[in-house]
Amino acid sequence: MLKLIWRNLIRKKLRTSLTVLSIGIALVLISFLQLVLAAMSGVEGTAANRLVVRNAISLTFRLPASYEQRLQTLDHVEGMTILNWFQGQYIDDRPENRFPRFGTNPETLLSVFPEMVISEDEVTAWRSERASFIAGQTLVDEQGWEIGDVISIQGDITPVDLELTLRGIFANPDDPSDERRMYFDWQYVEEALGNPGIVGMYYLRLDSADSMDRVISQIEAMFENSPDRVRAETEEAFFLSFLQLLGNVQFLFNAIGLAVITSIFFITVNTMAMASRERVTEVAVLRTLGFSRPKVLSIVMIESLGVGLLGAIFGASITPVVTNALTLFLSGQGVIFNSLEFTLQTLMLILGIGIFLGLAAGLVPAAQAINLKIVDGLRQVT
Amino acid sequence: MVPIKYNIKSLFIRKATTLMTILSIAFVVLVYIGILSLGEGLRMAFGASGDSSTVIVLRRGTDTETQSYFPSETHRILSTLPGVAMGPDGDPLASGETLTLQIVERPDGSETNIVLRGVEKEAFLLRPFIELTEGRTFVPGTAEVIVGRQLAGTSTDLGVGGVLELGRLSFDIVGIFDAEGSSYSSEIWGDTRVFGDAFRRTNYYSSTRLKADSQSDVQTLINAAENNQQIVVDALDEVSYFEAQSTRSSAVFLLLGNLVAFMMGFGACFAAANTMFSQVSARSKEIAAMRVLGFPRRTIMSAFLLEACVLGLVAGLLGALFSLPFNGISAATSNFFAFSQINFVLRTTPDVLLTGIALATITAVLGGVFPAWSASRAPIPALLREG
Predict the structure, then answer these.
(1) ipTM value greater than 0.85
(2) Same domain, yes or no, for A22 and A144?
(3) What would the pLDDT profile of B301-313 be if each residue is shown by its tens digit?
(4) Mapping DSSP to helix (H, G, I), strand (E, B) and coil, where does residue B98 land?
(5) pTM greater than 0.95
């Protein structure tokens, strides 16, 4: 019986392959959008025991440097550092030159991000030289830098020009996207500005995720009546707040996905309908030969399922290639994703949609096939 | 020439197949138009904000008002530049404004950044299109604000009578203003000094807008501001400023739309090819008959292409029709470079609709080329034998 189904599938090779191709491409699109969503939410690489303290008004407001001492009095805090976003301009506005730049405290950065891999010597070199920086492996590869290279970044929002020497290269196996960052000593900027003592974010690492809720409420209470009220949140919530700024991207992408599925549904139904229409006589012959209704039903359904599955397999097999190509293309357009990883979840999604499409598209022709009066089928000449 | 009636009738003979192909293409068009109308709405929101005789001055090196700041002294120098128009009261039409981003919770619990614009009376003189639709304007020197209509529409908490905690003060919402759908309609406006007090940031401005004496003086005024040795600023006309903002923000939608159109276009193209192939094979005897009657191959090919074209056109029209309810839907996204929310409405403009219909037609015709070609090439005996 399987042989019969296979023969049916390849009877009109062109039609089957066109349908499989269109299902495949549509599934690639859907999985690409899902991968983008996953990448944008960027919660990958966040640690459940890290929290961010920033000004309650918004990111454009800073906090006083004096808060550090008060935060240090808290229990459960194992590490604390500062992160200050430094926009500036490196060479020009091209997307590859717009990597994240953070001013930090070289003495404490690793206490909060222990997963960063960097040699002891490089850290020491970075700590002992104010005008130096460390950069992630990806960034170093992109820019073709070598240890000892000097770069200059023009200040804009923060009116300080930086001249920094690369003293270390780090890796971050937990979060490859982190490797597009650079860190430098914030004291460089503080000195140039006459030590105003400003901090964008305090980054804290706690002993465990269980202490998180308690510490967050302690921190918010601590500064309740201070001139600059703070907002303390988990690293994950902090990242998600950026996604929320974009509005309902998730809804948009899911709506696109749904319309795309509807579209390929019609395509698949159409193919199956065409196939079964051509074979009315054959179905009648099968029934005459003693094939039961359930058997005829399953022949049609399995064939339809086969189309859906073939489409899904094709889609899944080209998704990684297409995703890489698209990521490359988009980075040329200024939209940079750090990593779009083809996950098992995406694979399951693609297969699931393929199976659903195949089954749903087979329903109508299958129903027609079992309701067919043998006499009518034999009479019909196509 | 084969009468077009023949093609249309042929499409109708296989109603189900034709309909499903049309629907599959129509949904692709629907998605495409949907995304394009997002981009278009965003573009219009920014486009409506600019005035070509107004010069906007920012701190040198910054691209958006929310990033920029300079001392009040800079603003004072700017307002005395030659070429600045005078207002009805004899003061220069120079509007110093402060922009503050404030985290605000959306009704669904997610968060966004809203622009608080601190203004003085010149802000209204420079933007005559701003109109109060409800309540009254704020009284200078008091903790009162007015809310842009599109922002007010997103949450009931932002209506007249509401109270907003901003910085260390509580502000009463006393009015709702409309700014002709421009990006100002996504902002909250209040007195510069009171905002400064609330956020303990005084004696600074984010931007200064200067009204040029006459249209021709705009460039002169820009040069005067940028070349003044006492201040470090960038100046550009307001239209260019907003164009840059809108290009950056809507580029993402344009990119997404083209990506979806490109990939789904393939799928739809294959669907059209399938349908046209089945049309050709179902009508092999007819084709043979036409050939025998003396219709040249070229005519047969063009007849089938025309049929594909009709298929695409109908699908495009249907997709466009489905998309009409999109027009006017409110949406909000972030101004990507200022990190502030901008509310806008989707616009299914004629341009957008036509682009969608064109996409459908091109798709269907591309899908029809090969089947039409094979129909015209097949030898007559083979055609007669088939089926």
Answers:
(1) no
(2) no
(3) 888 888 899 999 9
(4) strand
(5) no
